[in-house]
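task queued by scheduler; priority normal; single chain, no ligands, no partner chains; default sampling; output format set to structure tokens
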Amino acid sequence: MIIDCHCHAGAGDGLTGPWDTRAPLDKYMRRAARAGINCTVLLAAFHSDYRRANREVARIVASRPERFYAFAFVHAERDRGRIHSMVYEAVHRFGFIGIKVHRHDARITREICEVARAFRLPVLYDVMGEVSVCELLAQEYSDVNFIIPHLGSFADDWRAQSALIDHLARHPNIYTDTAGVRRFDLLEQAVKRAGAKKVLFGSDGPWLHPGVELAKIYALRLPDSEEALMLSRNFLRLISSIRRYPVRSTGVASRAPDGIGVSSEVHDPWAGEQFACC
């Protein structure tokens, strides 16, 4: 089984570049099929209204629920005070299985981390080279799993990527993905020092070719068991204990926030047979 844990989808509402304009999946899907990728985690493109963008991603997931997962994109500053309601809708109504945050928008906040803790969701946080935050995340939120994509820097920052390897090796809740990692020796070093159990396959599609990104995993020439960890098992473990209803400190499940209508047909990839959609 191969799961691409990092692919964007839907329309943005900007015109800065592809990342905030549009993330079409037509070419990606053909390329992924040829590469043997079974499932893909979808993330919205950059947007000024992530609630709206997440709902568009939810429609894409609903069109092929056997093929897609999704993470809820949130803006740490602009969505302050409503992160819980956004994530509740995404998880309970649409079956999303994680949170996406980008340093380009704003730095991650306690609000986001605490919501992730309440729902037991992994957080995909693009730190844009600011890998030192991993020390704080690991200490303050040791029960939340953080995936730091691109080995810490899509900009090919060797210093940042080298520093992230140390965090991967030392902190049980810090992970990375392989999307856009161009210095293969660093990827090899990350697996050697931290173990295959800390690295997930991701492509950053549709803008990067999933087959090309997948080839890096095979080039590592790992034992089958370790390769399987990177290709799917790590990801499945990270989403294995998600709560659809968050539990407050009192141990009482939270009810739906006001104003959110809960669909009777919830895409629930962890219900019944474990991860049967893939």
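post-processing summary
- The chain is about 40% helix and 15% strand.
- The CA atoms of residues 18 and 240 lie 33 Å apart.
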